[in-house]
């Protein structure tokens, strides 16, 4: 059913909310750039954003969470800060954009908390269900693109990108990149479990394939799902 919001006497159809998910270095930012270009070509007004982030408060929370020295030490405390940032992001950016009929494309959302702080970090599912009900409510994504990749490959890509961004400098891995391989394997399983539980919302793509072929696959599914002209 299409959610509608009244603006004056006219009713504007709610925009679509698309999230990208997956482990470290799977290619989300790369694929979001491809999708954004295709949406522009199709005339779809949209906003690209990210989590943690998207508002001044959430960007500050991001700095804290990704700094391995000052991040909260338990997954539970991290989850609360991710949800505080998410609440602000939803109120200030995501919901207002959707209510104007604009689409929102977000790099990570609640499935990341399920995988990182839940499946890999040990926070109970029921706790995250409660956070979802309180913070997200009806604003769940219409479509989630899960990029699935062997964590060894993803971490190698993330390391290469970090080295290329500051040649010659030592750049420390962030809070989550620096964890053991076993943590990253639990993450991957957590994301795939989420896809099994929500097969209509979450589409899984093989992120090992060539960047352009993957972009074509994603666009074809988005166009099909939302009746866009390819
Ligand atoms: N987090 C986040 C939580 O723990 N809980 C939460 O609730 C949320 C929301 C965010 C961190 O916070 C954690 C998860 C994360 O650890 P981040 O900097 O946003 O930190 O990190 P990532 O989301 O992991 O983003 P990355 O930038 O590391 O990875 P991307 O965006 O998935 O990958 P991308 O596109 O930058 O590509 C990586 C490299 O691979 C190449 C690219 O050119 C690039 O160099 N590449 C490919 N190479 C070969 N084949 C392809 N198909 C390729 N696609 C891209």
Our count of domains comes out at: 1
CATH-defined topology:
Rossmann fold
Tell me the CATH superfamily.
P-loop containing nucleotide triphosphate hydrolases
User: Can you tell me the CATH architecture?
Assistant: 3-Layer(aba) Sandwich
Helix fraction, binned, reads: 40-55%
Query: Which class do the helix and strand fractions yield?
Result: alpha/beta
**Distance from first to last alpha carbon:** 24 Å
Describe, in plain words, how this protein is organized in 3D.
The protein has helices spanning 28-41, 56-66, 75-99, 110-119, 125-136, 151-165, 181-197, 211-226, and strands at 4-7, 10-13, 17-21, 46-50, 103-107, 143-148, 202-206. Residues 1-9 have low confidence and may be disordered. The protein has a single domain, classed as Rossmann fold (3-Layer(aba) Sandwich). The protein has 230 residues and is α/β, with parallel strands linked by helices. It has 8 helices and 7 strands; from the N terminus they run βββαβααβααβααβα. The strands form 2 sheets. Strands 4-5-3-6-7 form a 5-stranded parallel beta sheet, sandwiched between helices. The protein has a two-stranded antiparallel sheet with strand order 1-2. It is 52% helix and 15% strand. The chain is globular and about 45 Å long. Residues 24-30, 51-52, 66, 82, 108, 112-113, 116-117, 157-158, 160-161, 176, 210-211, 214 line the site of P1-(5'-adenosyl)P5-(5'-thymidyl)pentaphosphate. The site of P1-(5'-adenosyl)P5-(5'-thymidyl)pentaphosphate has 24 residues, from helix 1, helix 4, helix 6 and helix 8.
């Amino acid at each position: 059913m299409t959610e509608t919001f009244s603006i004056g006497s006219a009713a504007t159809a709610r925009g679509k909310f698309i999230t990208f998910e997956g482990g470290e270095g799977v290619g989300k930012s790369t694929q979001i750039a491809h999708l954004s270009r295709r949406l522009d070509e199709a005339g779809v007004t949209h906003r690209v954003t990210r989590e943690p982030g998207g508002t001044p408060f959430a960007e500050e929370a991001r700095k804290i969470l990704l700094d391995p020295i000052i991040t909260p030490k338990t997954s539970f405390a991290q989850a609360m800060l991710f949800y505080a940032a998410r609440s602000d992001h939803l109120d200030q950016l995501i919901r207002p954009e959707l209510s104007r009929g604009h689409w929102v494309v977000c790099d990570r959302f609640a499935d990341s908390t399920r995988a990182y702080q839940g499946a890999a970090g040990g926070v109970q599912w029921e706790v995250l269900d409660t956070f979802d009900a309180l913070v997200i409510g009806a604003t769940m994504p219409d479509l989630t693109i899960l990029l699935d990749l062997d964590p060894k490959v993803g971490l190698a890509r993330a390391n290469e990108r970090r080295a290329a961004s500051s040649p010659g400098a030592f750049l420390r891995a962030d809070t989550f990149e620096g964890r053991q391989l076993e943590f990253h394997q639990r993450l991957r399983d957590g994301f795939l479990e989420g896809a099994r539980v929500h097969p209509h919302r979450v589409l899984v793509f093989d992120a090992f394939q060539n960047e352009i072929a993957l972009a074509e696959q994603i666009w074809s599914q988005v166009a099909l799902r939302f009746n866009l002209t390819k």
